[in-house]
Each structure stands twice: as structure tokens, then as C-alpha cells.
Amino acid sequence: MKKVIIAEGKTTTEAINNGLKQLNTTKENVTIKVLEEEKRMFFSILTPRVVKVEMTLKEKEEKPEPVKKERKKIKLSEEDQQKGKENVEEFLKKITKHFEGETTYTVQATEEGLNIDIMNKNLGFLIGYRGDTLYAFQDILSSVASKGTSNRVRVILDIEKYKAKREKTLEDLATRMAKIVIRTRKEIKLEPMKPYERKIIHTKLQENNKVETKSIGEEPHRRIVISLKK
């Protein structure tokens, strides 16, 4: 919803400046319409002149979700697969000794990279807030795996099946929010999310013929808006 205010001043400039202060913005971000300008007549010299302006805060331009260029897939040779797997297994063998509780892991090598699953109920710290630490650790493992290989080894890491659980949570959220939008006929803005999380929401609601989604804002505050289809 657009924000509209009425500002007053002794002059048009003063009225505009007062309005800009109220909106805490600059002139480029508003549209201005002079509503009323009381002029002093001969018999009202002592009456102060008042100018009223209507100021509407412009909505920020909504940018579509950027289309990422698909990376050229590199098929790893058997030598690179084996080397990458050995690198990671050696690294995990050393580091998991310091984890509390029993830790098990599997490392599967494919032409696309390594799929790693780590199981330990005490590894919440390695997942972090909404997977921040997990994805950082995934990058570290990719660097470890790529040591001594002819191509970079891509690593897909999951800990305690976090990714599957998070995907299910986001899909359920998308379904619930879509129902609210349909019932109230009002759009809903979700909280800021990471690109891969927004993709889950967009994908889930593509199958809904009553609502549509778009992303607004700049990273890291970019968020999804769910609204009725026009």
C-alpha cells in the first residue's frame, strides 16, 4: 500500500521539506501535488499563509528474480573422483574425532562431484542458523576435495537430513501462505530468504493456479511476495 501524507508550510518549498522529513526520504522518491494555497488578501494581512501538499512515497522498483546462468557441468574423471573422495574421508576422519557423540558419514563419488551425509544429533552448531554454517562447511569440503585434482570437485553436503527437513518446512509455509492470500485476497510478503530458499517457494507455488510469486528488494534482504493472479 502506498504511503500518502499531507504536509503544510508557509511556502510550497517549506511544505515539501516538512513532508520529506516526515517520510524520512528525498524528493526523488515522492510524487508531489499542491492541494491548497491560502493567499493573503488585503484584509487578512495578519493571517499566516498556508500551503498544503499531498506527498506519495514511490514504491521501490520490483526486480524479478535474477536468472542464474547454468554452470557448465564438468564430468569428473575416475581419478579425480577417487582423489576427491580420499581427501574428504581423510579430513572427516580427523575432524569428527573432536565432535561430541558418535558420528557416522558417507561419501559418494559421482561424475558431478561428492555427496556427503553426516549423522550426529549433536551437530546443530555445524548447521547454524538456517544452514549458514552448513553451507560454509560445504565450501570448505569442496576445497579439501579439490586438492591435487585436475578439476574442482563439487560437494553436496547434508547433516542430519537438514536440507530435506528445511525444504519440507518451506513447502508447507508456501502452501499455508497461499491459502491465506486466497482467503483474504491480500498479498503477503515473506521474511527475507536466501536464493535457494526462495527457489523452493517459487517452485512449490508454480503448481497453484490462483496465486503468483515475485521477489523484491536487494540481497541479503530480498524477499518473496505472494499475491492473487491477475
Sum this structure up briefly:
36% of the residues lie in helices and 23% in strands. By secondary structure, it is α+β, with helices and mostly antiparallel strands. The radius of gyration is 28 Å and the shape is elongated.
Residue-averaged pLDDT, rounded?
A: 87
Strand content: 15-25%
Number of strands: 9
What is the CATH architecture annotation of the largest domain? 2-Layer Sandwich
Give an overview of the whole structure.
The chain is of the alpha+beta class and 230 residues long. Helices cover 36% and strands 23% of the residues. The protein folds into 3 domains: 4-57, no CATH class; 78-160, K homology (KH) domain (GMP Synthetase, Chain A, domain 3, 2-Layer Sandwich), CATH 3.30.300.20; 164-228, 2-Layer Sandwich (Ribosomal Protein S8, Chain: A, domain 1), CATH 3.30.1370.50. The protein has helices at residues 12-23, 78-95, 124-127, 132-145, 162-184, 195-205; strands spanning 4-9, 30-38, 50-57, 104-109, 114-119, 155-159, 188-189, 211-216, 223-228. The strands form 3 sheets. It has a 3-stranded antiparallel β-sheet, covered by helices on one side. A hairpin with a 6-residue loop joins strand 8 (211-216) and strand 9 (223-228). The chain starts with a strand and ends with a strand. Residues 40-46 have low confidence and may be disordered.
